[in-house]
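Re-run with default settings, no changes from the original entry. Doing this only to confirm the output is reproducible before filing.
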Amino acid sequence: MQKRQVNVTNPFGVHARPSAMIVQLASRFRSRVSLTFNGHTANGRSIVAVMLLAAGVGTTITVEAIGPDETRGNRRAGRVDQRSDSRNYPSLDQI
């Protein structure tokens, strides 16, 4: 089991676009990926579950990977959204 804490830095928090990116990334791995925020845990492969966490800017999310490729998956999850561009992609610091 691999766990990692990540900070939400985007002013809009985790909304549809970053949720979709998280789900897309989590679906590439065989490991089970879950995100925990404020006592609620979401399946990393469910966009609705990730969005319902309603993690806002300045909050911390725990990303957990369990399975055969957990180390690689958790490391990748730490970099999913470090980009920003003119469309203002929301960013999760280290997700």
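Residues 2-93 form a domain with the Histidine-containing Protein; Chain: A; fold (CATH 3.30.1340.10). The first strand starts at residue 2 and ends at 8.
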